[in-house]
Design a protein that fits this description.
The chain is of the alpha/beta class. It has two domains: 216 residues, Rossmann fold (3-Layer(aba) Sandwich); 100 residues, UDP-galactose 4-epimerase, domain 1. Helices cover 43% and strands 15% of the residues. It contains 13 helices and twelve strands. The strands form three sheets. The protein has a seven-stranded parallel sheet with strand order 3-2-1-4-5-6-10, sandwiched between helices. Strands 7-9-11 form a three-stranded mixed sheet. α2 runs parallel beside α4 and α9 packs across α11. It starts with a strand and ends in a 13-residue tail after the last helix. The structure holds nicotinamide-adenine-dinucleotide and thymidine-5'-diphosphate.
């Protein structure tokens, strides 16, 4: 038995689905079901007795103590977080509460549980904290990619809150001996990605005939990894990672945002051409840049490749095609997440003056 937190969100749900497909081991899935948590992501495992879903908060100490005592997990995998940079700029409070205070309470509850386990179980126990490359800050064009040895320089309220949680996890290992593992992964994409993030927002907006809002000059670089590859990396780290170590996870896929948007448009032009015969690229609109926007992220994944033998299965070309196809085949899922709260956010976020297009034909 393992305990997963945040398993109704984008990456957590993919992890739960892959876990139940790959192993017979049951799991408890603790999720608060914020705007980003969606039980429809888990429709295919409803009724599977190995999946025990509990709605609740990682900051709820009493609930955590009860779940740990009742289910006696051999590991905890912590996905639960507020995850959207733009929302963190708009209102950081929830990020501090969940990502910092919630992670602290989870660590404390796990420490109390782990501390009284029988010797063998205590040694085998793992707490895996899922984090982001954004804790490292922004790279200049010629800087080497982020290695695990790089210092933290978080720039957004989101990345600062994740960096704080990473530091807490590290401290709980050094101070109390808790057998922790941390993964810092690059930008994910794939099925069940909430359409406030770049790739699903572009797909959904394109199909709805809306603008495709590109921040600033569109030349910011992100390093993209198909979500199933992130999930396989987490499984591998859980299985073979050394306690106290951190592992950077990425697929060597750096791309400027405008190139991503153009690729999405080209795939849609091929798979679902517009009725008027024009390219979806004509919907690209350059908008005001995000405040404090990090220019470039890139992951040096050599440690996890060398020490744990992990490699991604997808290239960006195969992963993005699968992703666009998934959204085309799951219009019902998209409609379901586009609630009133979603519309309010997207509409207020993009009421911005277009600025002249400078890289549209990249
Ligand atoms: P998401 O926003 O899609 O999902 C987060 C999930 O956590 C939701 O189901 C939500 O209901 C749940 N949650 C939020 N607050 C909670 C709380 N207090 N208690 C219990 N559950 C709570 O996020 P995601 O993109 O799936 O990211 C998952 C994790 O991976 C996060 O920790 C994030 O920082 C990290 N990460 C994400 C990316 C990425 O590209 N999305 C990359 C690297 C790391
Ligand atoms: P996002 O998906 O929010 O991930 P993160 O900020 O965590 O990297 O954004 C990815 C990149 O795309 C980032 O450089 C911001 C940019 N972006 C846009 O240009 N337009 C958009 O509408 C969104 C949501 C993001």
């Amino acid at each position: 038995m393992i305990l997963v937190t945040g398993g109704a969100g984008f990456i957590g749900a993919n992890f739960v689905l892959d876990w139940l497909a790959a192993t017979s081991e049951p799991l408890v899935n603790l999720d608060k079901l914020t705007y980003a948590g969606n039980l429809h992501n888990l429709d295919s495992v409803q009724g599977d007795a190995r999946h025990i879903f509990v709605q609740g908060d990682i900051g709820d100490t009493a609930l955590l103590a009860r779940l740990l005592a009742e289910h006696k997990p051999r590991a905890v995998v912590n996905f639960a977080a507020e995850s959207h940079v733009d929302r963190s700029i708009h209102g950081p409070e929830d990020f501090i509460q969940t990502n910092i205070v919630g992670s602290f309470r989870l660590l404390e509850a796990v420490r109390a549980y782990w501390g009284v386990l029988p010797e063998g179980d205590r040694a085998a126990f793992r707490f895996l904290h899922v984090s982001t490359d954004e804790v490292y800050g922004s790279l200049a064009p010629t800087d080497p990619a982020f290695a695990e040895t790089r210092g933290f320089e978080p720039n957004s309220p989101y990345s600062a809150s994740k960096a704080a949680s990473d530091h807490l996890v590290r401290a709980w290992h050094h101070t109390y001996g808790l057998p922790v593992l941390t993964t810092n992964c690059s930008n994910n994409y794939g099925p069940y990605h909430f359409p406030e993030k770049l790739i699903p927002l572009m797909i959904v907006n394109a199909l709805a005939g809306k603008n495709l809002p590109v921040y600033g000059d569109g030349m910011q670089v992100r390093d993209w990894l198909y979500v199933k590859d992130h999930c396989s990396a987490i499984r591998r780290v859980l299985e073979a990672g050394a306690p106290g170590e951190t592992y950077n996870v990425g697929g060597w896929n750096e791309k400027p945002n405008i190139e991503i948007v153009n690729m999405v448009c080209s795939l849609l032009d091929e798979l679902r051409p517009r009725a008027d015969g024009q390219s979806y690229r004509s919907q690209i609109t350059y908008v005001k840049d995000r405040p404090g926007h990090d220019r470039r992220y890139a992951i040096d994944a050599r440690k996890i490749e060398r020490e744990l033998g992990w490699k991604p299965a997808e290239t960006f070309d195969t992963g993005i095609r699968k992703t666009v196809q998934w959204y085309l085949e799951h219009a019902d899922w998209v409609a379901n997440v586009q609630t009133g709260a979603y519309r309010d956010w997207v509409e207020t976020q993009y009421e911005q003056q277009p600025v002249p297009a400078v890289g549209a034909s990249a």
